[in-house]
Design goal:
- It is a single chain.
- With 539 residues, the protein is an alpha+beta fold.
- It contains 23 helices and eleven strands.
- Helix content is 53%, strand content 10%.
- Strand 8 and strand 9 form a beta hairpin.
Length: 539
Amino acid sequence: MSVATLDKENLEKLFYFSLKKTGNPYEAEELVQETALEMLKMLNKNYKPDNFTAWMWTVVRKRYARWCKNKHMKLSRYEIENVYDYAEIADEEQNIEENILFNEDIELLRRELALMAKDYRDIVVSYYFDGKKIEAISKVTGLPEGTIKRKLHEARKNIKEGMKMARTKGQRSFAPEDIDFGFNVEKASEGYPLGAPWNLLKKLAAKNIVLETYNNPSTVEELSIALGIASPYIEDELKYLLDPGLMIKHSDGRIETNFIILDAETQKQLIELGEETGRRISPLICETVEKYTDKIREIGFINSDMPTAYLYWSLLYITIEKLISKVHGEKNIENYATERPNGDKWDITGFENWDSPIKYSSTVNRTNDGNSHFDHFTIDVADLYKTAADYNIPGDSLVLLTNIIRNNRKKSTLDTSENRIIDSLVTNHVVTISGDTIKTGFPVFNESEKHEFTAYHDIVREIYEGDVFTEFKNTYNSVREIISGSLPARFKDNITILKEAAGLLSNFRCILLRYAYDKGIIKIPDGDDKSAVTMYMTF
């Protein structure tokens, strides 16, 4: 034998073998070089192996064993359900190289079986490992015998190719520990096996799957390779992700994530844009409301005479909500969450974690009974978000409160069940009791009879029709462009972008009220009932 025997074909085989073993192309090249050098030294000493191919594989196995020892590694073992001790898969075309791959590297065979689709895997195991005849497999599976033979042929081919080829992991856009998820929930129940939507991505495997397929639509096999998770487990997780629509499956079998993820750079751009716009519009909004304070008080809504520094909490919030609503109307954005197959309504957005210098935290607990509307917003301004009670008034409580306000009812007129409701409203700082009088501590607008809520918006109309709204609308357009430019192509014309851009406008609640607080325009009351400054009601 001569040096020429180590031709390109044999070196490629050694490289693929080494790459599968080491998982690193540089380590694989080093292992091939060491193997080739050892073989050349022996050949130059006139060593003449009886079977060159068998000798070559013996040398590379020994070199790999030495490499493992130096690296303090152990060979990995791949296991799947219901398969334990694998024998050789018989094939009339086997040669020495295949014997190495099928006999010496049993763990790679296990891997290939684990990666195989379930219907193929069951047939392979039944035929080769359980010794069942094709006729018997056909009866059990309900597939024609010709289909069984075809699947066996395809499986043999895929196993051999999979054990020869170098498989590398896909590049994931995000690491699971770097992503948090936000939910816009209108209705959530226990309708799915995992319950509420925020439970769907608690498991690390599910999180890895949605992140892997965000920029890499993948088959189950490709997911299994990339994540190192056996395909049966991938398939189990996908049941819970595909059903509610967190992922979608295409006709070619590829699966991809069906919600958007905002990376750190995109979030940074959005914050910078929002803060820049806020610096321009916040003074204008506050100046307008302050300019018309006397006219606003003349409307005569309940608690219109409360201290200005407390009254403005609700008025500024109401103004921002009106601006958001007007953008929704002009852009034809429906303010609703996606309806899921079980009737729930919610959306999800992923956010890459980063060390943001500014946080926007606000929630709105909103109750409508058809005739009345109650908002309690919690806002991250000073310490109000942490100390103010987060309360969502029940529908029956809102009905009773409306009745009490409209008819000026006294506490002595309430029955036992009504008194229990009022006691709850007192506990949550919605009302106070003074003698026999039930009082609220926030603005209450009589819209149905006196159109007081409309009157407020008419007084500050210039905010909604002038430069402030133009700035606000332009900011929405810019937010939409920034988000769209950061997403995979499949989301470019997706309604999700419109809703997410509109949703991010809610950050202006924090931006405006922080400005007002910093300038001393609004103040936080003392006492446990401070949360009442972030409530308002219409009826």
